[in-house]
Amino acid sequence: MPTHIKTYDGSEDPEDHLKFFQTAAKKERWAMPTWCHMFNSTLTGNARVWFDNLLAESIDNYVDLKKTFLENYLQQKKCIKDPIELHNIKQRDGESTEDFVRRYKLESRMSKEHQNA
């Protein structure tokens, strides 16, 4: 796997991950069946669990894998929030401070103010 390809855990924009992966696959001139095997190696955490739980023989090719991946992770697509919305992010019942801070940082990265910085 090319070293510049980051792993994907399900918490970021899936289209960004696909763009980097596809660029690398084309540059490396992998055969299409290799794309599926190599894509699998870019997944960690929640995304790895998702992949491991796909039904056997439910994916026939990279196009199927890409479609299924996007259907599952498209809600992570970047959206730009108004900075005022950040004020409304509250710690959830039972959410640890560490988890809240992680979630707050993730959501604040998507604010208009941060995008324009």
Please describe the topology of this protein.
Layout lengths: L13 H15 L3 H9 L4 H8 L9 H12 L9 H4 L10 H12 L3 H4 L2
Key phrases:
117 residues, mainly alpha, 2 domains, disordered C terminus, transferase, nucleotidyltransferase
What features would you describe in this structure?
By secondary structure, the chain is mainly α. It folds into 2 domains: 14-76, no CATH class; 83-115. It contains 7 helices and no strands. The longest helix is centred in the N-terminal third of the chain and has 15 residues, at 14-28. The protein starts with 13 loop residues before the first helix and ends with a helix.
Supply the helix-strand structural class. Answer: mainly alpha
Our Rg estimate from Cα atoms comes to: 17 Å
Report the average pLDDT across residues: 83
By DSSP (H or I, 4+ residues per run), the number of helices equals 7
